[in-house]
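Table S2 (continued). Query chain:
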Amino acid sequence: MRVRSAVVRITAAVLAVGCITACADGVPTAVPGPMARDSARATAPGGAAGGAGASAASVRANASCTAGECTDNSRTSGSENRPGTGGGRHPCSPSVSLDRYSDALDKTTFQGTFIGNLSALARDTDGSIAAVSDRSVLIGLDGRTHRPVRAAKITDEQGAVLDAEGLAVEPGGTYLVSSETEPSVRRYDRSGTLLGRLPVPDALRVAPAGRAQSNQTFEGLALRPGGGTLTAAMEGPLTGDGKDTAGRPLLRLQTWQRYGARPGPAPYRLGKQYAYPVDAGLGVSEIAALSDGRLLVLERGFTAGVGNTVRLYLADPRRAADVSGVAKLPGGKTVRAAHKKLLADLGSCPSLGAPAHQPQTNPLLDNIEGMTITGRAPGGRLRLLLVSDDNESPKQITRLYELTVRPGGH
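Corresponding output:
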């Protein structure tokens, strides 16, 4: 028995060393988990393993790789509650950790439909992940594997395509889709049939109809759990709106209140409007609603030759002033904007050997536009799924990110 045990221990040790070496070099290894990374892209541009923001040692210690997969193997009961890890061994900040990422959807098709240009995600009622392309396509992704399972074209009232940027799923399974062209929020059934359209304040319309700037309107859309309050986030400020005392541009969050469940025209009335201070040089690309009324806000920017900046904030509009009647922000000292707290700069996340097709300070980053809460983890933490919009460009990637977030507070 002793001889056999010794042999087993030695064999296990040899296999473990082989696995660590193989994973670091991108050689296929059996691992659990649905998220994927192409092993052919296991080295960063220039051939440096691990890429900026993560050493080869950190990749070896915490991740296993297969063809198309890179996943966190350190999520044990010991690491789940370790302070400062955010729930794993790939911390981006004390509040956020990166669990895994996937490039498996990049430049793929499903039944003749290109799976890319993804600008929003939402948890669907059947457990799948709903996604929307800014080329006017509703896409369903398997809730576990994140592989495409359905696709449907959507149009406006005249049959024209939308610049779809936001997505929310109602409790009954219908979809709310925002377009930044007018801007608009429309309601669709699961086959993509148009059901109705929500009212939009005149000031939020694109000039000359209103004061919004082109391509700076409804970029984020979120429905509070329970379906009572819908929020749309402007990507940028209105013409004439100013900055807060910290020099941050003030953009607007528009809400609607649901007043019924009948079919036909969307049963929502215009609600309150809040001011939100966005970091200079960035815009809001997505929001997700918490049950207590707070919002997760994704801010994003791009600098040619440098790359993307992506920051995750927790915003609290519950004590903010209703600015629907304020012509120009900031509107005076008594007008309180939504408070926000930085949860993580995603450029600080370990890269896990992610490739980048254009300059990035961290090759993990790309044009991240979509975000949804997929579930809960122990200790009140949230599971997030993010996606980047590749714009059908060879320089950009359709990449999925799984994060664990501890928002804190109530």
